[in-house]
Structure formats: C-alpha cells, structure tokens
Amino acid sequence: MIDLARLRQAFPDRHILHFDSLDSTQRAAAGCAPGTIVLADRQLAGLGRQGHTWHSAPGAGIYCSLVLPPSPVLTLALGLATVEAIAQATGIQCDLRWPNDLMLDNRKAAGILVQLVNGQAIAGIGINVNQTEFPNDLDREAISLRQHAGREFAREDILFALFPAIDSLTGEDPETVLRLFTHASSYVAGRRVTVDQPGGVITGTTAGLDPAGFLIVRQDDGTDTLILAGGVRAAGS
Ligand code: BTN
Fold it and tell me: Which domains does the chain have, with CATH numbers?
C-alpha cells in the first residue's frame, strides 16, 4: 500500500484520492477538480496510448492521474518531469523515446497518456517500479526499476519527487521544454528509427523537433516527415 498519510502531509494543498483497486485512474480523474491527483495500488483496465492496455500489477507500480490545465508540449514536459523524479528518487537515469516513453535497457519503464476531457488534461503516468516479471510477451518490451537496478524502491519516494517536478516543468515555456527534451532524449536527433504511420511503416533518421514538439524523421530519399503520434521504435528492434 502507498503511504497516503505521508503523501498528504507532504502535499497538504493537493486533493489526493487513493483507491486500492479500480478500473483506471484516468476514468476516476475525469471530471475531478483541477489539481486533483488520483492514485491506485492496482488497475483492472489500465489505459495505454494508441488503444493499448497498461499492465497494472497490484502494489508493484505507480498508477497516477493528475487533472491539469492543457498546455502546449504538455506531454513532453510530463515525460521530462517523470525522468527527473526517477533520477532524483532512485539515481536511475531513463532515456526518453519520443514523445514520452521512459526507456531503460531498450525497454519501457514508464509511460504517459494525456487525454483531453471537458477542457482539462487528464495526465496519466504509469511507472514500473517493483515488478519482478511481466506477463506473456510484455517482458521483451517492459522493465521495472527493480529489474534494472536489482533492488526495490519505495513508490512514495518517487511520488514525492514527481509532483514538484510536474509543477516545475509544466510551468516552463515551450521553448525551454523543447530544449530540455532534446537534451534528455537520445531519440530526437541522429537516431535511426522505424515509425508506424497511417500510410505504412517508414524508416529514417531523426532530425529534431518542430516548434510544436513533433518529431521530424528524414527518410533516405531526403523527405522529411513530421511524426504527430507515437509508434517510434529504434530501427532493427
Ligand atoms: C503508454 O501507453 O505509454 C501510456 C501508459 C499510461 C499508463 C497510466 S497508469 C495511470 C493512468 N491510468 C491509466 O489507465 N493509464 C495511465
């Protein structure tokens, strides 16, 4: 169980809802007041990006949704905040696969889903903290901080760092977020990638972010394609 009393004491001004088990913190947060934080120890129908589910084993991960004002480059800012919080709380430095997958050892350690509901951004953050295994084929794609470091971590310590990091990074201007993201992510420039696009799969080399935060992929014939959604993989993986 997450130590809720410690969290509420540390963030007395925040409205923090906690559930032992629910379908998805995203659904619980939709319609809540701005600033609300929803946490769960377990999700029965965790939502991932692009229609995927998010495996949410009991007590092993952080399953968190925050109600935030929508802002430009919010998804990039949330990825940066999550990287910063994990580094601060655990010493582990994750890479960022555009737009906001946190990567360790070429596997995904955390993911972020932003949904717009009635003019509010519902920012869902899932972090694989203490999982020792993942079901079926997922262990080729997913990794926990514990699997990476060989030791357990207190989820509260990450949350203590996460909420201030989100406040700080979502308060930055878009140019600063783009600069920080470009610095933090090995995927933004010079990386050979394969991308699922509506018209099929393309392969090319990443060539930076446009001013709106979309990823530019340069194909071998020189064509630049702006990637608007995820689906980016290191080529050959
Ligand atoms: C992704 O596919 O990378 C995004 C995963 C987001 C998972 C989190 S867990 C907390 C919140 N509630 C959900 O149902 N999904 C998000």
Answer: 4-183 (3.30.930.10), 187-234 (2.30.30.100)
